């Protein structure tokens, strides 16, 4: 789970809660790693894939609609700020 917390920039507690929710909804299957009993292997289920395939286009259309409200300079500024946030988050060490 530590790798998932790093990739998602979420706390261990938040990742655990998300995994429990996704597992309960049959969107993710989990099992203990055969190599390390402390680790979990997660796999998206067919139901999870269906949800992602349904939601992604809707989300993408919404992002495009928001971006269309900005002119080129504003979009460039937004991208710079988002990149800065991403870098600062990546470099931020968690306690």
From TrEMBL:
<dbReference type="InterPro" id="IPR036388">
    <property type="entry name" value="WH-like_DNA-bd_sf"/>
</dbReference>
<dbReference type="Pfam" id="PF12802">
    <property type="entry name" value="MarR_2"/>
</dbReference>
<feature type="domain" description="HTH marR-type">
    <location>
        <begin position="1"/>
        <end position="87"/>
    </location>
</feature>
<protein>
    <recommendedName>
        <fullName>HTH marR-type domain-containing protein</fullName>
    </recommendedName>
</protein>
<dbReference type="InterPro" id="IPR000835">
    <property type="entry name" value="HTH_MarR-typ"/>
</dbReference>
<dbReference type="InterPro" id="IPR039422">
    <property type="entry name" value="MarR/SlyA-like"/>
</dbReference>
<dbReference type="InterPro" id="IPR036390">
    <property type="entry name" value="WH_DNA-bd_sf"/>
</dbReference>
């Amino acid at each position: 789970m530590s790798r998932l917390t790093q990739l998602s920039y979420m706390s261990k507690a938040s990742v655990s809660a998300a995994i429990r929710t996704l597992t309960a909804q049959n969107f993710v299957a989990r099992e203990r790693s055969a190599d390390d009993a402390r680790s979990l292997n997660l796999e998206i289920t067919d139901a999870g894939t269906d949800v992602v395939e349904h939601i992604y286009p809707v989300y993408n259309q919404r992002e495009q609609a928001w971006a269309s409200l900005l002119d080129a300079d504003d979009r460039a500024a937004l991208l710079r700020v988002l990149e800065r946030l991403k870098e600062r988050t990546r470099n931020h060490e968690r306690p």
